Amino acid sequence: MKRFLGFVKKEFLHIFRDYRTLFILFGIPVAQILIFGFAVSNDIRNAGVAILDLSHDEITLKLTDKIISSGFFKKTETLLNYKDIDRVFKKGKTKAVIIFENDFGKKLISEGKASLSIIADGSEPNTATLVTNYTTAIVNDFTTELAGPVLNNSIRISPDVKMFYNPNLKSHFMFVPGVVTLILILISALMTSVTITREKEFGTMEVLLVSPLRPIQIILGKVMPYFILSFINVLLILALSWLVFDLPVKGSLILLLAECMLYILMSLSLGILISTVSGNMQQAIFISLIGLMLPTVLLSGFIFPIENMPKIYDYVSSILPPRYFIVIIKNIMIKGTGLMYIWKETLILIIMTLVFIGLSVRKFKIRLE
Amino acid sequence: MNNTVISVHNLVKKFGSFTANDNLSFEVYAGEIFGFLGANGAGKTTTIRILSGLSIPTSGEVNVAGFDAYSQTEQIKKNIGYMCQKFSLYEDLTVKENIILYGGIYGMSKSLIRERLIELLAKLRFQEYENRMISDLPPGLRQKLAFSVAVLHEPKIVFLDEPTGGVDPITRRQFWESIYETASRGITLFVTTHYMDEAEYCDRISIMNDGKIVALDTPERLKKQYNATSVEEVFIKIARPV
């Protein structure tokens, strides 16, 4: 045990001596959270809209009021005719113009339908889509409120799934779980695979193997510091998302931390496996980055919903551990569900961890032969 | 006087159908400098791995420092030291930290490590380097330090796998002085090298070819036997059979 602790201490020294490692360990997660939280925001807040109300009756005034008071929009101007549209867009502050047709209120009551146009500033496609989606949602809400289900209107709504559990439409509710998933697997797998291949490359692994340390002690000793640091990372990210984005953990914090530990363990054993198949540090970095980061970002459901993917990608993504962890962490953090609803995903992660450890041990033994 | 520390009888090691060690038999005595020579790919590394407890023989009897190479590899590891051609100290740790690390791995007590550290630094006139990173040291000093670390726990046998690869002649000369000094303390040195002048310094040498030991004796007698003026000549005559 004393031997082992001395060895663990040495690993910490490596980490703390190397500023780059430290930066990757703690700088990147913080930067990622802040970037995803602030810059890559899917929210709109106080987006400028201009109103062109050709009807100017009670209903259009009410609807306008509802849109403006939603908090997502801010009225920039009230337009008088179509010619003004071009002018107001050129000014740049207005992201969309909402146009009520002539006799909007009258038509709605007598014919049961009226039309309204939303013209968005297409030079910012992302904002444009968001603004139109938000507006149609508000309009839809308004019509049901106004007339109940009897009055079928002609306004089309594209229901947004993410609004269901995210009524405030805050996008960092989606990004924090994704970033945690990405960062943990990346850092844990990358760091362990690099630190182990480094010993191989420098020839110190040979010396360690000849020493009385058992292979299992060597591996554990190398992995233990990263387990502790990754866990600190989890706490850091959660604290940051709570302090900066007001994102609380709805479910059990203990359960969430336990699941995070499982996921870190899984990532570390994946890192060990990567180190047994790669001959040098470059290979380990390459496999970890290309093999883990891209699929995690693209296929795990972090950004793009799995349901919308072609079946084949669905199958590919089912072998990716992040896919399951994302479900787990979203459930605990946002929906506040307990183990009952995520035991299947948890079990899959446990099995994956065991498989990775088993494969690594086998590979390691073959190498020793 | 002739205390056997390594005894090998009919050692065979196969990897699939390839025989890396073909029926080796030899003995190494306490306090001896044993040169283990052979061309690249002759099977030296395989033998060293078996003798240091990293690899299990296919058949034959192997006993190192009184322990069996099949069942007591843990005991063997505690009683040997090892230094390889690749540099074996951690460059981002200081001299002191490296010594504490290796001392700890070999289960030495804190006070013993401290004692040896002071002794070692004094012997190598290294005092001012105690808290310097290994990466700041010139290669010659690193080499000396790596060797001192390999014998830090006073092992019975030290394996030196091409310890002087890529080192200048003066440093090599000094390195061999410390090898002699170590041997005089009763520690056995098992050395592989490609430098034939170094082979002349050994008490006895064995020459391996194609998985077999083809010659084993003192350098003097081998030279006489093969009618050669240097070990290099002997080596070329044996290792490249016509």
Q: What does this entry look like structurally?
A:
- The complex is a heterodimer of chains A (369) and B (242).
- By secondary structure, chain A is of the alpha/beta class.
- Chain A folds into two domains: 2-40 and 170-368, no CATH class; 47-163, abc type-2 transporter like fold, CATH 3.40.1710.
- Chain A has 14 helices and four strands.
- Chain A has helices at 2-17, 19-39, 58-68, 83-91, 104-110, 125-147, 172-202, 204-210, 215-245, 253-277, 281-299, 311-317, 321-335, 339-368; strands spanning 47-53, 73-79, 94-100, 116-120.
- In chain A, strands 2-1-3-4 form a four-stranded mixed β-sheet, with helices on both faces.
- In chain A, helix 3 links the parallel strand 1 and strand 2.
- In chain A, helix 1 (2-17) packs across helix 9 (215-245).
- Chain A is elongated.
- The two termini of chain A are 26 Å apart.
- Residues 153-169 of chain A have low confidence and may be disordered.
- Chain B has 242 residues and is α/β, with parallel strands linked by helices.
- Chain B folds into two domains: 1-79 and 155-242, Rossmann fold; 86-154, no CATH class.
- In chain B, the strands form two sheets. Chain B has a six-stranded mixed β-sheet, sandwiched between helices.
- In chain B, helix 3 packs across helix 4 and helix 5 (139-150) packs parallel to helix 6.
- The longest helix of chain B is centred in the C-terminal third of the chain and has 16 residues, at 169-184.
- Chain B is globular and about 50 Å long.
- Chain A binds chain B through residues 2-3, 5-7, 9-10, 13-14, 17-18, 202-204, 206-214, 368-369, and chain B through 15, 52-55, 74, 77-78, 80, 82-93, 97, 100-102, 104-107, 159.
